[in-house]
């Protein structure tokens, strides 16, 4: 009997929290943010809505004066819709930390310094711009052709390169007594507007500018493992794995696997006398298995 009462109490508490969160949505819709205190209250309220109902209010809580966002392009790739946005920071001090939320829990995103960059970055510097790449699987668009995204921007102190991001966040939280400036704006991703469709083999027929779009998407959708073998030579790799199609773009190359290696890629980039080599696969397991084959022959 006691166990039944506990379950009933838990159910009632959950319903009360959900009701409070729904009231919070009404407050966000009807109230106007005018003061700094209003802004902090709105931020806490939106977090509560997100935690309890797993959804977002899709319009900004206040005027966004810290960053702007503009759509670049969208296309279909590997059963996903990919959308790229240009984001510019309008603050003179601090880094812009970007996150993306939506009613679809499977939304993924990644940042790059520029449209021509194949190296992901974690933040956008002060008064700088960056590229936000967002992907949504087709399955999240079964009920509707369009999905709304909430782009959150938060100003953080300049990141020290000697700390990883999670460790840096802990330090910043303990040292910074004032709440960071933040804002949210809305964007959308549409299946019908993404008229171009590509697969991994499409890169073979692209110029570098178009190929970079796919590489940015690959870094978001696929798993990666770094090739740590200091003696790794691509001439040896090409001899043992002739079924990989080479796509050479001067400073970087992408080898796309065919036949039994379909879905496996090898990426290499040379910059400032340093070389980065990666095995890329649709799953982490695929990466590990191919890495074992690579180490055995190369």
Rg measurement, Å: 23 Å
Q: Calculate the terminal CA-CA distance, rounded to whole Å.
A: 66 Å
Overall geometry = globular
Q: Briefly note the structural class of the backbone.
A: alpha+beta
Question: Low-confidence stretches at least 5 residues in length (pLDDT < 50)?
Answer: none
Number of strands: 14
| Average pLDDT metric | 82
CATH class of the largest domain: Mainly Beta
Any idea how many domains? 3
Query: Do you know the CATH architecture of the largest domain?
Result: Sandwich
Strand content: 25-35%
Tell me the CATH topology of the largest domain: Immunoglobulin-like
User: How do the strands line up in the largest sheet?
Assistant: 5-4-6-2-1-9
Q: What profile does the largest beta sheet have? A: 6 strands, mixed
Order of helices and strands: HHEEEEEEEHEEHEHEEEEH
How many distinct helices?
Answer: 6
Provide the helix percentage: 25-40%
SSE layout and pairings?
Elements: H1 2-30, H2 36-53, E1 67-77, E2 80-89, E3 95-101, E4 108-112, E5 120-121, E6 129-137, E7 146-156, H3 165-175, E8 182-190, E9 197-198, H4 208-221, E10 223-226, H5 234-240, E11 245-248, E12 252-256, E13 264-271, E14 274-281, H6 284-297
Parallel strand pairs: 1-9
Antiparallel strand pairs: 1-2, 2-6, 3-7, 4-5, 4-6, 7-8, 10-14, 11-12, 12-13, 13-14
Helix pairs in contact: 1-2
Could you write a compact summary of the structure shown?
With 298 residues, the protein is α+β, with helices and mostly antiparallel strands. 31% of the residues lie in helices and 32% in strands.
């Amino acid at each position: 009997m006691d166990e039944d009462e506990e379950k009933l109490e838990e159910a009632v508490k959950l319903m009360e929290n959900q009701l409070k969160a729904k009231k919070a949505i009404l407050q966000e819709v009807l109230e106007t943010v005018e003061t700094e205190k209003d802004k902090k209250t709105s931020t806490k309220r939106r977090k509560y809505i997100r935690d309890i109902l797993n959804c977002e209010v899709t319009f900004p809580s206040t005027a966004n004066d810290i960053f702007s966002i503009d759509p670049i392009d969208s296309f279909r790739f590997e059963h996903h819709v990919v959308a790229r946005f240009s984001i510019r920071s309008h603050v003179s001090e601090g880094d812009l930390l970007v996150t993306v939320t939506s009613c679809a829990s499977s939304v993924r995103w990644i940042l790059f310094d520029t449209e021509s960059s194949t190296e992901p970055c974690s933040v956008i510097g002060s008064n700088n711009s960056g590229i936000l790449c967002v992907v949504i699987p087709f399955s999240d668009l079964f009920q509707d052709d369009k999905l709304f995204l909430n782009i959150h921007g938060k100003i953080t102190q300049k990141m020290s390169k000697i700390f990883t991001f999670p460790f840096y966040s802990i330090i910043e939280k303990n040292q910074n007594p004032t709440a960071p400036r933040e804002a949210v704006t809305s964007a959308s991703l549409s299946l019908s507007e993404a008229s171009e469709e590509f697969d991994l083999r499409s890169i073979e027929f692209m110029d570098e500018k178009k190929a970079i779009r796919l590489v940015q998407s690959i870094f978001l959708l696929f798993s990666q493992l770094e090739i740590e073998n200091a003696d790794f030579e691509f001439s040896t790799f090409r001899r043992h794995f002739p079924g990989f199609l080479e796509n050479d773009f001067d400073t970087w190359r992408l080898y796309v696997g065919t036949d039994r290696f379909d879905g496996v890629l090898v990426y290499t980039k040379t910059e400032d006398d340093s070389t980065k080599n990666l095995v890329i696969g649709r799953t982490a397991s695929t990466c590990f298995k191919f890495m074992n084959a690579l180490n055995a022959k190369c």
